[in-house]
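Collaboration report, partner site 2.

Our partner group contributed sequences for two proteins of shared interest, and the home lab folded both. The records are reproduced in the order in which they were received, starting with the first partner submission.
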Amino acid sequence: MGASSSEAVSPRQAPLGRVYAALFLQVMINSGTYLAGKRAMEELPPITVVLWRFLLCALVFCLLLAFTPGPKLPPRSEWRRVLMLGMLAGPINQMLFFYGLSRSTAAHAALLYALTPLGVYLLSLARGDERPSSRATSGILTAFAGVVVLLLGRGLASARGSLVGDLIILAAVSAWVVYTTEGRPFAAAHGPVRSTAWSMVAATLLLVPVMPFALAPARTFSASLPALGSIAYLAVLTSVVAYLIWYYALTQVSASRVAIFSNLQPAMTAIAAWVLLGESLHWELALGGGLVLAGVRLTQSAPVVPRASPVSSQEQAPVSIAEG
């Protein structure tokens, strides 16, 4: 498959210390995503933040593709899948995520996105790609208990606003789960850089019809430097740098080892939100978060038992299991 097939093979192994240092940087970037989103939405509507994020992200990926040897456009036979992945990643996932984040907290959003590996596992069971295991089932039940504590711990009346936001974020997580699962064979066939770039550019194109009504350039450029910097953070660090680090790590160590690092993200986000945004570290967050992370860890450590013939390790590598 030309240049794209060369991306699908693992390069020379790098020292594990370097790989883990890169993964820790990736976790730090993704942990700041929720805080950057909250800061930008203090001055701009969620849809405006989403539109500018994807515009800048698409520009960076177009420049990246221009300097990457090989095909710049996806094969015609893949256009439908690229549009589907773009729809899931942009108009559905990110719109729901930012609207949910505007009515919830950064710590809650990080915890709920920690459910992504569990959702991928459940979807794999539903599609018949894997057989259930007792350890994975225990992990799912543990994480579900954590979500219940997280959503309802303070009661429906006192947490109504946060509850609505959390439920919207859960819908965004569901879209991300489908994107992750459907993107596996696509990334295996065309390489992570191209598959991510094509889907992100497609997401931006799908958002073009609403740009005349919600891009609000005058209001955006009159926003404060911290708000503009937050949008730049979302577009460049979260959507480009963190993704590239993630795929670099997947070429060096197993996907399960990479995935373990995502468990650090909710705790780092909660601490950063407490320090920078003044969000409380209430007991429901600690208990629910602990259960969610324990459930995710149990599921990630469960053995994969495919129903059909095993796929290659590249096909098993997810597009991403952590939002940004």
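Second partner submission, folded after the first:
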Amino acid sequence: MLTHLTIPRGPISLAADLHLPDDADSGAPLRAVVLSTPGSSVKEQIGANYASRLAAGGIAALVLDPAHQGRSEGEPRDLEDPYRRGEDISYALDVLTTTPGIDPRRVGVLGICAGGGYAVHTARTDHRIKAVGTVVPVDIGTAFRGFTPDGPAAALDALADARTEEARSGETTRVNWLPDTLLPDTLEDAAAAGLTDIDTIQAVTYYRTGRGRSEHSTNRRLLRSDSLLLGYDAFHLADRLMTQPLQVILAGRVGNTGSHDAGMRLWKLAPNPVDLMVIDGAGHYEMYDEPEYVDAAVDRLTSFYTNNL
């Protein structure tokens, strides 16, 4: 059962979908989670794949478009502000914890890819979140700093010049995701650029072909976002502040996305790690939609939330 929601966020509104179990009206108040999705994705993509399965397992799941992206409001468009991404989760919690049929004392968060870092960063200080689940989590700050061939300080110098030029011209600049490869719009573009890495090809295949493409995702990032991302640390103070139970799910094939290293670092940092699962044979982007791997992850997450919410 799917319900469309509007989440007030100061002067703007966020578009969200609440996935509910089919028998949601027949029992006690439900456990629930807010989903924080990967960078560049919208709620109809990876978030829906996980939210619908969690609902089938008896857990309400709310997935939203970040501010400035998808069908949510906010200008300028395509901004990826990691701090606002975290605030989006808290605004979603405002709605979820006051929704009839949801138990506000049993609400968790699930973060996927960059959304995993955002979920952790938010859970440190928003203790309405009672359990934290992550799937192939990425600290997007560490990832972006690793994508700068001349170092992050030099990248920030160039971004400062670009921002000044934007202020002079009045025109904003957008770039393709991802920053290490400038994720092409088609497989043909990837081949023409000589890109053969399996993770890069799977990213293109998911986001830019019929496999996972959404008309509401632009595959563009506002360039000024990068200054914020380069200075971000998703796990800062997690070892002291994120006391909630933690589930980490990783892909068995390590690849080049950084999610394996980030997930293991998070696991070691967390004060209350409960369960670590590595799904053999899966790659990072296969964890987005391949039924075999998503089903395995959701089965484990359902048990985790049932036991910890």
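Feedback sent to the partner group on the second submission included the following. The radius of gyration is 19 Å. The longest strand covers residues 102-112.
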